[in-house]
Amino acid sequence: ALKGIITSFKARLKARKELKLIKLIEKAEMLRVMTGYRYYILKIKGKNKIVSKQTAKRWCKDGTFRKGTTIEMIEKIAIYKTRL
User: Fold this and answer.
1) In the chain, where does DSSP find H-type helix?
2) Domain extents for the chain?
């Protein structure tokens, strides 16, 4: 019985995370349509965040990310990338 409760709890958590990610993707696409910029969904400090390409470039330049990090590396690790 306990095993079944734990499994259903884990399934609910997974479903909630997926729903949050879907909402973030929709928001990123809406921002892209409104602004014309490209957006990424990145995992920052354990949370998924929407970041524009310009902001990511600025963070690479000013040292927010580790030294040597390029925008291409960020594109590879992004959870989601909007179309142009």
Assistant:
1) 2-35, 53-62, 71-77
2) 2-81
Token pair, residue 77, equals 């690790």
pTM, whole model, 2 decimals?
A: 0.83
Residues 8-19: tens digit of each pLDDT: 999 999 999 999
Tokens 């995992």 map to which residue? Answer: 43
50 contacts: CB under 8 Å, gap ≥ 6:
24, 27, 28, 31, 39, 40, 41
Of 47, 45, 64, give the one whose Cα is nearest residue 56: 64
Task: Report which residue type is found at 13.
Answer: L
Token pair of 13 as six digits:
């958590």
CA distance 73 to 16: 28
Q: Cα–Cα distance between 31 and 23 in angstroms, integer?
A: 12
